FMN reductase
Amino acid sequence: MHIQVINGTTREGRFSERIAHWVLGFAKQYDGVEFELVDLRDHPLPFFDGTAPMWTPRQYANDEVARFGRTVDRADGYIVLAAEYNHGYSAVLKNAMDWTYAEWHRKPVSFVGWGSVGGARAIEQLRQVAVEFEMAPLRHAVHIAPDLYLPALEQPDPTDSAVFAPAEPFLKLLTDDLLWWAGALRTARTRDAA
Ligand SMILES: Cc1cc2nc3c(=O)[nH]c(=O)nc-3n(C[C@H](O)[C@H](O)[C@H](O)COP(=O)(O)O)c2cc1C
C-alpha cells in the first residue's frame, strides 16, 4: 500500500511542516505501508492555463506537470495537510489539483487541518472538491485547534512533535480508516483493470 502525505502549503515559515513531521513520524508504526511526503514546494507548477484534464487524462502540458501527475498516480490514498486561508484551503493546492484529474480517481482521501477552528472550513471545502475528482473523501479528520496549534508554534524545533500527542488517537483513527479504504479500493481498481 502506498499513501501520500500531501503538504498543501508552501509559504516561508509554514506550520504545515510541523504537521508533516508528526504525521510521517506516527506513520512509521504501520509495517508494510509506504508513506511518501509530497511537498508542493518540490512541484513548482505554473498557474493553471491548460485544457481541462478531465477531457485529456494524463496528457501533460509540460515536464513539471507530468512529474506531479505521475507522483499522484502512484498512490493508493492520500492524507492532505490542509491550512485554512480566509476560510478556504490554499490556492497552491487547488492549482496543483486542477492540473490533474484521473490520477486521483477512486482513491480515498483524509485530512489533517489546523487553525482557529482546526481547519474545518478548509477541509469541508476540500471534501466537496474531492467528490468532483471521483475520490472517496473520508469522515475521520484531525483538527489541530488553538489549544495545540499555539503551543506548537512556540516550539523552536519543528521536528519535535510531542505537543501533538493529545491528537494522536484521532490520527490513528484517520490512518486505520484510510488504510481500510485504500486497500478495498485498490482491490476494486485492480479487478477493473484485469
Ligand atoms: C492568507 C492567510 C489567511 C488566513 N486565514 C485564516 C482563516 O480563515 N482561518 C484560520 O483559522 N486561520 C487563518 N490563517 C492562519 C493560518 O491558519 C495559519 O497561518 C497557518 O499556520 C497556515 O498554515 P501554513 O503556516 O502552513 O501556511 C490565515 C493565514 C494566512 C496566511
Remarks:
- Residues 168-193 form the longest helix (26 residues).
- The pocket of flavin mononucleotide is lined by residues 9, 11, 14-16, 83-87, 115-117 (CB under 6 Å).
